[in-house]
Amino acid sequence: MYQQMIFVNLAVNDVDSSKKFFTELGYTINPQFTTDDCACVVISDTIVAMLLSKPRYRDFTKKEIADSTTTSETLLCLSAESREKVDELVDKAVASGATEGKTQDFGMMYGRAFDDLDGHTWEIMWMDESAVQG
């Protein structure tokens, strides 16, 4: 069965530093689609983050590249299998140089956020599936 994928493309200041950051979070780099100016970060079987140097990113757009340290260009939200996994991933990110963001606890839904090395906001969210199934 076909599974649709998402490829999130993000402009970064330093591809090597970004590769190191995301591997410290436990993600892998696909060398087949990684070059000096682009890193292919495998988040899951259906989610890939393409970390592009700003010159490489410009090859895909005529628009101004947002300064993600001062402008919110997107909010990226990833699910986690438990509250503990939310904390584990965000704590790893902060230990690897990320800036901790907001924590939200609604009982049946729990999330924390961080800004990566380039200021892109990542939210990690757990939701109690039994509360959603109604």
What does this structure look like?
By secondary structure, the protein is of the alpha/beta class. It is 24% helix and 35% strand. β6 (99-105) and β7 form a beta hairpin.
Name the descriptors:
alpha/beta, 35% strand, globular, 4-stranded mixed beta sheet, 134 residues
Write the layout of secondary structure elements.
Layout: E1 6-12, H1 15-24, E2 28-29, E3 38-42, E4 47-53, H2 54-58, E5 75-79, H3 83-95, E6 99-105, E7 109-115, E8 121-127, H4 129-132
Parallel strand pairs: 1-4, 5-8
Antiparallel strand pairs: 2-3, 3-4, 6-7, 7-8
Nutshell version of this structure?
The chain is α/β, with parallel strands linked by helices. It has four helices and eight strands; from the N terminus they run βαβββαβαβββα.
Q: What is the C-alpha radius of gyration, as a whole number of Å?
A: 15 Å
> Strand order, biggest sheet?
1-4-3-2
Spans of 5+ residues with little confidence (pLDDT < 50)? Answer: none
Strand content: 35-45%
Major pleated sheet: 4 strands, mixed
- Please provide the ordered H/E string of secondary-structure elements: EHEEEHEHEEEH
**Cα shape:** globular
Distance between the termini: 28 Å
Report the structural category: alpha/beta
Q: List the total number of helices.
A: 4
User: What is the average of the pLDDT values?
Assistant: 95
Give the helix proportion (percent range): 10-25%
Number of strands: 8
